Every structure is written in C-alpha cells, then in structure tokens.
Amino acid sequence: MNGLMTRYKESLSKTPKPIPFSEIKGKMDYRGLLAYAKSQGKKVSDLTQAEKKQFYSE
C-alpha cells in the first residue's frame, strides 16, 4: 500500500495548480453553452473547442 501512496503524492505534485477566479480575463455564457449542447444532443464535454469558443468573450 505504501507504493500506491507514493505514486499518488508524485501525481499530486505534477498536477497544475488551479487558476484563481480573479485571474480569469474573459467571460463564458454558460447558459447559452448548455442550451447549445442540449440542442445538438451532446454533452458540453463532447463539444469541440471551436463550438465552445462561440460562447467565450474577452
């Protein structure tokens, strides 16, 4: 079990830190994004970056 904990801690050290909300420059229209995904019959995670970018503004 000790080997698993060591690998877990190594994995955590390699994981990037979260971006603070105050550093996010643009705005995302989540309501519109969810409505678009629903109209396409997809999950938000299944949308392409180009589709998601339509709902992002700086």
Give a description of the structure:
There is one protein chain. By secondary structure, the chain is mainly α. It has 3 helices and 2 strands, in the order H-E-H-H-E. The protein has helices at 2-14, 30-40, 49-53; strands spanning 27-28, 56-57. It has a two-stranded antiparallel sheet.
- Tertiary shape: elongated
Q: What is the makeup of the main sheet?
A: 2 strands, antiparallel
Helix content range: 40-55%
Rg (CA only): 17 Å
- Give the helices and strands as they follow along the chain: HEHHE
Report the end-to-end length measured between terminal Cα atoms: 47 Å
Strand content: 5-15%
| Low-confidence residue ranges | none
> Helical stretch count?
3
Going across the biggest sheet, name each strand in turn.
Answer: 1-2
- The overall pLDDT average reads 91
Structural class category: mainly alpha
| Total strand segments | 2
